Structure to design on (600 residues):
């Protein structure tokens, strides 16, 4: 077993070298020659913002023009359309990364702030758990000779209430053994060395101090299992972290290729332009990080695998995505709506539940549905025990749930969703409630948001129920599971309160352009609009409330794209197993149809 793990580790090291090559190439060979003013941070930011907006609007124009040309029986050349789609895809993919321009993002490409949390949090998970990362890092700093500085610092208290406190009010200086007792001497020495490297790499100062005021290490145990495997393959340094950051680049590329494989070049272009140019989930938040995009790779893989008929793997992939970030579990509602409406149609054909069940079991849809469910259950049965073994037992799952409940209950200014929409008020805005005299200046803003959420929660759940019913109506005659998955996007917006960067999940809505080509233009225009909104507001909570409204509209348009207007006649026809009634033809005006009279 040890030899197998050693062989696997060697192979992965080789793969990581390959993944780090693109950033090394661009930084070393290309942008090193781009030293003009236009390539500096401020100027390049303006250029890239203009390019993102331009790509979305030009992409929408291209889709509409191509659709109109086909309707007029004058289609564009297939070679030209494919070529343009590839150009849009490549530009949008590069745009997400700012074309790897090192002047605009992070030194050495990778994101030190992210790696501090995800590298240390997974590598030392059994010692740190979910509540000791900041305090133990502070204790390590004290032992590294920074005691006087730490006495005047602040950190977030992850274990108690998730609020920012002065270090002197914590156990860091009073009882450092409350951290060290969880480590062996060897592991504590390694942890101190890693913390010291992060401090030196960040050059101290405000950037370093802000790392201990963030919101801690939050991934579930299944992610921790994979993170721990990779983190233990090397020590903290620039070279190793560039390799780990390359994993996400490979996942992004795989995501684009999967969409092309399952849905073709047109959907690939629309999906990549949306993802590469949208504002909430841009590179700023999680770019250059350590496996922050594995969940979206598996989400995209699920819908692509189901489209190609690999139902077991499709169920496995979506469950894996859910085990990595929890909220994708809500997207099972989309698959569930197709399953429920398919079964209901069998029942409505006559004979009651028993006859409907017998009829349903004889169809190929039953086999598809059971395979999808089996794949999801199998994923649970394999990954949960494996993760518990890697992270110190099943207790890690209960510890995660306790931690994430506290974390998600703390309002963030870059949260997005229906909760954000309903709890945002004029007087309760951060602009008016922030109090810099407090240890945590945002506490009044958070408290007000929580109070308003208690009052509006029934409305939020009512909206979710309405969206589920609307999705069921839209899917009542659909048997394709892949069509159902995007229907759950707006439902997830109601049931969760996600940080903005998880809204890259809307990339799966692009697949509906396969059956409703014009919807692709709508999705790309929405991505461009998100860039415009980002610069419209100054305060962060205002920015992401506006983004929430935009993406909720996109979620509703996703359902509307395949929905027909509701009518009792249509409902009865479906329940009786008959086609939808045809719309009555408009009666032409007699004045328009009458023949002109002869002149007197």
């Amino acid at each position: 077993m040890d030899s197998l793990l050693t062989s696997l580790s060697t192979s992965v090291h080789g793969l990581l070298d390959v993944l780090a090559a693109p950033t090394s190439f661009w930084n070393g060979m290309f942008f090193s020659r781009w030293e003009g003013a236009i390539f500096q941070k401020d100027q390049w930011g303006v250029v890239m913002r203009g390019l993102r907006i331009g790509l979305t609007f030009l992409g929408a124009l291209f889709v509409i023009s191509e659709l109109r040309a086909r309707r007029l029986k004058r289609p564009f050349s297939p070679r030209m359309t494919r070529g343009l789609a590839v150009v849009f895809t490549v530009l949008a993919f590069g745009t997400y990364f700012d074309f790897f321009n090192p002047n605009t993002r992070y030194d050495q490409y990778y994101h030190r702030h992210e790696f501090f949390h995800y590298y240390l949090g997974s590598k030392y998970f059994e010692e740190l758990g979910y509540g000791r990362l900041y305090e133990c890092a502070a204790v390590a700093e004290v032992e590294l000779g920074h005691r006087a500085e730490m006495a005047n610092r602040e950190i977030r208290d992850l274990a108690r209430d998730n609020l920012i406190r002065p270090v002197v009010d914590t156990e860091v200086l009073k009882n450092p053994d409350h951290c060290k007792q969880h480590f062996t001497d060897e592991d504590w020495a390694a942890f101190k060395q890693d913390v010291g490297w992060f401090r030196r790499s960040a050059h101290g100062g405000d950037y370093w101090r802000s790392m201990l005021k963030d919101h801690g290490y939050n991934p579930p145990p299944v992610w921790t299992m994979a993170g721990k495997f990779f983190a233990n393959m090397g020590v903290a340094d620039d070279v190793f972290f560039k390799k780990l950051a390359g994993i996400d680049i490979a996942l992004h590329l795989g995501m684009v290729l999967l969409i092309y494989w399952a849905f073709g070049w047109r959907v690939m272009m629309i999906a990549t332009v949306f993802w590469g140019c949208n504002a909430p989930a841009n590179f700023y938040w999680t770019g250059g990080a350590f496996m922050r995009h594995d969940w979206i790779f598996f989400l995209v893989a699920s819908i692509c695998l189901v489209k190609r008929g690999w139902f077991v793997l499709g169920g496995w992939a979506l469950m894996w995505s859910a085990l990595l970030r929890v909220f994708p579990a809500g997207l099972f509602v989309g698959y569930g709506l197709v399953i429920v409406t398919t079964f209901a149609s069998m029942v409505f054909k006559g004979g009651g539940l028993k006859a409907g069940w017998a009829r349903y079991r004889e169809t190929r849809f039953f086999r598809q549905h059971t395979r999808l469910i089996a794949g999801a259950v199998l994923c649970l049965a394999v990954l949960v025990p494996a993760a518990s073994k890697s992270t110190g037992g099943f207790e890690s799952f209960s510890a995660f749930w306790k931690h994430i409940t506290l974390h998600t209950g703390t309002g963030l200014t870059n949260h997005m969703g229906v909760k954000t929409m309903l709890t945002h008020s004029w007087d309760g805005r951060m602009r008016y409630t922030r109090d810099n005299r407090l240890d945590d200046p945002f506490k009044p803003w958070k408290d007000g948001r929580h109070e308003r959420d208690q009052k509006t929660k029934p409305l939020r759940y009512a909206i979710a129920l309405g969206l589920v019913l609307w999705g069921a109506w839209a899917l009542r005659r659909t048997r394709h599971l892949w069509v159902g998955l995007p229907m759950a996007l707006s439902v997830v917006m109601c049931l969760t309160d996600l940080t903005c960067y998880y809204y890259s999940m809307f990339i799966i809505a692009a697949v509906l352009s396969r059956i409703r080509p014009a919807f692709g233009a709508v999705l790309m225009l929405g991505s461009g609009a998100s860039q415009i909104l980002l610069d419209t507001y100054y305060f962060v909570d205002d920015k992401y409330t506006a983004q929430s409204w935009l993406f909720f509209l996109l979620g509703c348009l996703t359902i509307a794209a395949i929905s027909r207007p509701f009518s009792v006649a249509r409902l009865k026809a479906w329940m009786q197993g008959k086609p939808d009634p045809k719309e009555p033809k408009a009666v032409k005006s007699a004045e328009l149809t009458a023949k002109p009279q002869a002149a007197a």
Remarks:
- Strands lie at 154-156, 164-166, 415-416, 498-499.
